[in-house]
Amino acid sequence: MEPAVDIQDLTKVFKLPSLNREQVVAVKNLSLQVAPGEIYGLIGPNGSGKSTTMKVLLGLISATEGSTAIFGQDSRKVSSRAEVGFLPENPYFYKFLSGQETLHFYGRLGGLSKKEISERSKELLALVDLEHARDRRLSGYSKGMLQRIGLAQALIQRPRLVVLDEPTAGVDPAGSRKIRDLILKLREEEISVILSSHLLEQVQEVCDRVGIIFNGKLCREGPMEELMAIEDQTEILLDKAPAELVEKVTALVAEHEGASLIRSGHPRTTLERLFLEETSGDSPDTRS
Amino acid sequence: MRVFYFLLIFSALILAATLMIQNFTQDPTRQLKVMKDMSFFAMSIFCTIFAIVATANLIPKDIEDRTLYTILAKPVPRFEYLFGKYLGGMLVIFVSVTVMTILLSAFLYLRQEALLSDLQEYMQVAEQEAEQAPGAIENEGLDLARVEASSLRAQGPSWSLLAAVVAISLQAMVLGAITLCVSTFASSGLFTVVVAFVVFFVGYIEPVVVDSWRSSPEGISGFSNLLISAVGVVFPNFQSFNLVDGIVAGETLPSGW
Amino acid sequence: MTSKRWLAVLLLIVFGAVRMPFEQRIEAGLKAAHFREGVTVPDDSMREQLGQLGAAAALGGFRSFLATMFELQATTAYANKDYEKVSKHYLLATQLHPREAGYWEMAGWMMGFNAVAYYLGEETEGKYSTAMRVNLARKSVDEALRFLENGLRYVPNDYGINRNLGNLLVRKKGDFCGAAEAFGRAADSMDGPSLAQRHHVYNLAYCPGQEEEAYSKLKALGKFFKGGPNPLPDERIPPAFLFHIRYFEKLFDIPAEDRFKSLLDLGALYEKLRRNFEVGQQYEKRHVLNMQRLEDVLDIPKSNRIPFGKKSLRPLQGGAN
Ligand SMILES: Nc1ncnc2c1ncn2[C@@H]1O[C@H](COP(=O)(O)OP(=O)(O)O)[C@@H](O)[C@H]1O
Ligand SMILES: [Mg+2]
After folding, report:
1. Nearest chain B residue to A106, by CA
2. C72, C214, C226, C312: which has the fewest C-beta neighbours closer than 10 Å?
C-alpha cells in the first residue's frame, strides 16, 4: 500500500532578499514516511523546520532538493491535494464569513457539490462542536473555535490524510483536549494524520509514531513508547502505604547490589491535570 | 458597503450638477453635457482608483493571514486562484459601473425629456407668434429652438455613451490585472499602488508626449525612437481607452474600436 | 527561479510587441475620428493655468470635465464683469475641448457682444476715456472673431458658431460679404428654410460684386413665399425682402411682368420708419443702409433724404471711428 506521506531527502533553502545572498537552510535531507491510518507527530523547537516541511508536502512552496508525495502523487501536482486536508499554524479565515459559509467556501474549493457540502458541513459542525456558532461570523470566534473550524475545513472533502501544523498552539488546555479528542476520532476513521508541535506532552497522548526535528534535520524517530521509556528504570506507585512499608521497601532496595532508589515521596499532579480538573464541566468558549 | 456609499455620492453628484448647472447656463444642451462630464469624471476616478487600490492588497492580505495556505491546500490550481481573485475585484467594478450607467442614463433621459418638452412648448408659442406677426414666417427663436432640439436629441442616453463606459471598464480591467500582477511580487502594498499608478500615468502620457515630439519640426533621433519603442513595449497605451472626451463632444466611434 | 524571471520579462516583451500594432491602429482610428483634438502636452502658459493636477487630468481623459469647470469660472467672471477673465477661461475651455462647438460659440458671443456692450455702455463711462473704451471694444471684437474663426477650424459646419460670426461681422464690423458667407454656412447646417438663410440673402444684397447672385437668391426666396400650397398674403411678405428685390429689379431693368407681384406699400413703411430716425442719433450700418435702399427704391429725391453722415454711425461699424 502507498504511504500516506512520503518525503525523500527533502532540502529547503530560503534565499533571503538581501544583497549578500544570505541563505537559510530550513530543512536538510529529511526523509520520513507516514503509513495509512497512522498518526505521526513531528516535534521540535520553534524554527526547526516543521512548518516548512509541511508546506512543501502540500505543494505550497517548492522543494530545493528531494521530493514529497501524498499517496504516491507528487506534491507539485494539483491533484495530490484532493486527498489531503490542511490546518496551518495560527490560521485566519475570511472574518466576514460565518462558520457555515466558511465550510461552504472550502467545500467548493474541494470540488464538492452544494448538496454534499450542506450534508458534510452539518456533520463536521457537530464533530467539532460548533453547531451553536454556525451562523456567527468568524470575527467573533475564539482561538480554539478558529482552530476547530479550521479542522472542519480541512476535513470537508473527506481527505485520507490530514496535516495539522501546531493544532493546539495558543489554545487553552480545555480547548487542546477537545482538539486531541478530535484527532483520536480521526484515528477511528482510519484517517492518516501528520501533526507538528513544540510541546512533547501534547503529542504523546495521540501519536503512534514521533519524529524529532532539530535545525532542519530529523534526529530521532520511532514509536511513542520506545522513545519515552527509560529502559533501566522502574517506577512503583503505592496507594495508602503506611510509613513502615515504605521503610521496608527502601531497605530492600538498599540490600540489592547495583540497584538504588532515586526518589520517593508524594507524586505531584501535573499543572495541566489540575487545570483541567478545576475547569471541568464543559467550559464555554470565550473570546481570546 | 463602501462601494454602495460611493454610488450614493455619485447620484447626489449628478443631481447637484443638474441643479447647479441651471444657475449658470440656460443652454439645455450644455446642461446635459455637464451632467455627462461630472458623471464620467466620477466614474473614471472611481474605476481607476478602485482597480488599483482594491486589487493591490487582495493577495498580500491572503498571504499575510495565511488564508492563502488553506485555499491552495485544496485541489485548486494557482491560476484559478489568481483569476478568481481578479474576477472578484472586477465584479465589484462592473456592478458599480452598471449601476452608475443606469443612474446616469435615467437622469439624462429625464432631464432631456423635460428640456425637450419645454422647448416644444416654446416652439409652439413662437410658431403662433410667427404666423400672426406681419412679415415673418420664421423667427430667430424658432431657428435656435430647432437647432437646439436636434442637438438635445443627440445628447441623450445613447450607445456611444455605453462605449465610453465600456472603455472605462476595460481600462479598469487592464489596470486591475497589472496591479494584481505587481502585488504578487511586491514587498508592500504601497509599492504596488505606486508602481500601478506610475504604469498608468506613463501609459497615459507617453503617447501624447511622443505624438507632440513626432509633430515637432526637429523630429526625433534614432536613439529616442528606440527608447520610445521600448517604453511602448512595456507600458500599455492607456490613451486607447480615452473615449470620454470625444464621445461627450458627440463624435462617432471609429469602426476599429 | 531566475529562469522563470527571464521568462516573465520575455513574455512581457513579446506581449508588448504583439500589442503595439493594435494600439497604433486604435490610435490612428481615434485620431481620424477627431477623438484626439485638444490632447496635447499643455504648453507653459497653459500648464501654469491648469496647475500640475489639471495638466495631468487634461491628459487623463478629463478634458471635457475640465472644460466644463472653466466655463463655470468664465460664467462667474461674466457675472463680475471681468471680461479679461471670461476670455482667459474660455480660451482654456476651447483648447481643452475644441470639438465642443458650444465653447467657441459662447466665447464669441461673450466677447463680441456682452464685452462690447459693457465697454461702450454706461458702466464704463467716466472710468476710461471714450477713445480707450472704443479701443477696448474693438480689441474685444477681434478676440471674438478669433474665437469664432478658430472654432470653425474644428467644427466648420456648426450653426451656432456661424450664426454668431455672421451677427458679429455685420453688426460690429460692417462686413456684409463675410456675414453673408457665415449665415450661408449656418443655413446649410439646417434642413429646410431658416432665418439664417434669409440673413444670408439680405447680407449678400449689400455685398459688392454679388448683385446677380443676390437677385437670383431673392427670386428663389420670393418663389418660396408665393409658391407652394399656402402662398403668403401680401401683408405678410417681409418688407426687407421686398425692398431688396425691388432694388435689384430696378438695377437690372427687369420688365414689369417678370417682377415680384406684391401690392405691399413700401412708401407707407418708409414714412413710418422715417419718423423713428433722428438726426444726431447713432445707428448700425445695416439700418442706415436699409433706409438708404428704401429711399433708392422709392426714388426719394436727394434733398428729401435722411441726411446720414459719418457721425450717424455707431462705433465699430467698419468705419474709421
Ligand atoms: N519564507 C521564508 N523565508 C526565509 N526563511 C524562512 C521562511 N520560512 C521559514 N524560514 C526559516 O526556516 C526555518 C524553519 O522555519 P519553520 O519551518 O517555520 O519552523 P517551525 O515551523 O519548526 O517553527 C526558520 O529558521 C525560519 O526562519
Ligand atoms: Mg511552524
Report:
1. B71
2. C226
Strands A84-87 and A73-74: unpaired
Q: How do the domains of chain B map onto residue ranges?
A: 5-248
Helices vs strands, H then E, count in chain C? 14, 0
DSSP B245: H
Contacts 24+ apart (CB under 8 A), A226-230: A228/A204
**DSSP secondary-structure letter at C110?**
I
pLDDT at residue C161, rounded to an integer: 96
CB-CB neighbours of C165 under 10 Å: 29
Surface of A (155-174) touching B: CB under 8 A: 157, 163
Any atom of ligand 1 within 6 Å of the Cβ of A46: yes
Atom 16, ligand 1: residue with shortest CA distance: A49
Among residues A102, A109, A187, A189, the alpha carbon closest in space to that of A148 is found at A102
Stretches where chain C sits below pLDDT 50 are 320-321
Closest CA to C30 of B169, B242, A119: B242
Flag whether residue C263 sits within 8 Å of chain B, measured between CB atoms. no
DSSP state of A136: S
Q: Is A30 in the pocket of ligand 1 (CB under 6 A)?
A: no
**Picking from A117-121, A171-175, C265-269, which range would have the lowest pLDDT averaged per residue?**
A171-175
Q: Give the list of residues 6+ apart from residue C320 with CB closer than 8 angstroms, or none.
A: none
A157 close to ligand 1 (CB < 6 Angstrom): no
Distance CA B13, CA C235 (A): 54
Q: Which domains are assigned to chain A? A: 5-230 (3.40.50.300)
Q: Which cell goes with A246?
A: 515504605
Pairing label, strands A23-34, A39-43: unpaired
- Assign A194 a pLDDT band (cuts: 50, 70, 90): very high
Euclidean distance between CA atoms B139 and B126, whole angstroms? 8
Measuring CA to CA, which residue among A19, A21, A37 is closest to residue A184?
A37
Residues in chain B closer than 8 A to C12 (CB atoms): 233-234
Residue nearest to atom 2 of ligand 1 (CA): A14
**C176, C170 in Cβ contact below 8 A?**
yes
Q: By the 8 A CB rule, do C92 and C86 touch?
A: no
- Which of A46, A52, A64, A214 for a ligand 1 pocket mutation test, highest count of atoms within 8 Å of Cβ? A52
The single residue listed with the C-alpha cell 425691388 is C246
Please answer yes or no on whether C61 and B245 come within 8 Å at the CB atom. Answer: yes
Using only C-alpha atoms, chain C has a radius of gyration, in whole angstroms, of 27
Q: Is B69 in Cβ contact with A85 (below 8 Å)? A: no
Partner residues linked to A193 by β-bridges: A39, A162
| The residue type at C256 | A
- Distance CA(C318)–CA(C182), nearest Å, equals 17
Q: Residue A285: what pLDDT?
A: 43
**DSSP state at residue B36:** H
Q: Which of A238, A215, A245, A288 is nearest to A52 (CA)?
A: A215
Q: Where are the alpha helices (DSSP H) in B133-188?
A: 140-155, 159-183
pLDDT score recorded for residue C321: 43
- Distance separating alpha carbons of residues B126 and B111, to the nearest angstrom: 22
**Residue matched to cell numbers 467657441:** C104
Q: Which atom of ligand 1 is nearest to the CA of A12?
A: 12
Nearest C-alpha neighbor of B51 from the set B2, B7, B86, B98: B86
